[in-house]
């Protein structure tokens, strides 16, 4: 069963300016009480899906703790 609140979808995709070396797409996050529009950075080398904790807090997005903490690392191994 499709649930709009649990299964976000992307309606359109745009790339950045030709000289920009990043790809960002406009997305919309829907919760039961609000809608947040933003540009998401596509990181083809990422090994997961990530969102900034401060962004979650600023927009009062629902979240829950993971069973195990994930330590994010940069490509050079630093945290």
Distance between the termini: 39 Å
Total number of helices: 1
**Order of strands, widest sheet:** 1-2
Shape estimate = flat
Average residue-wise pLDDT: 76
Annotation, overall tally of beta strands: 2
Order of helices and strands: EEH
Radius of gyration of CA atoms, rounded to a whole number: 15 Å
The unreliable regions are none
Helix percentage range? under 10%
Beta-strand content estimate: 15-25%
Main sheet: strands, sense, barrel: 2 strands, antiparallel
- Class per helix and strand makeup: mainly beta
Summarize this structure as a short list of keywords or feature phrases.
2 strands, two-stranded antiparallel sheet, flat, mainly beta, 79 residues
Description:
With 79 residues, this protein is mainly beta. It has 1 helix and 2 strands; from the N terminus they run ββα. It has one helix spanning 53-58, and strands at residues 23-30, 35-42. It has a two-stranded antiparallel sheet with strand order 1-2. It is flat, with a radius of gyration of 15 Å. The model has no long low-confidence stretch (mean pLDDT 76).
């Amino acid at each position: 069963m499709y649930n709009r609140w649990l299964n976000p979808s992307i309606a359109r995709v745009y790339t950045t300016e030709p000289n920009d070396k990043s790809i960002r797409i406009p997305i919309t996050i829907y919760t039961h009480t609000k809608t947040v529009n933003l540009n998401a950075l596509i990181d083809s080398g990422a090994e997961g899906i990530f969102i900034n904790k401060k962004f979650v807090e600023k927009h009062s997005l629902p979240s829950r703790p993971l069973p195990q903490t994930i330590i994010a690392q940069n490509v050079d191994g630093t945290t």
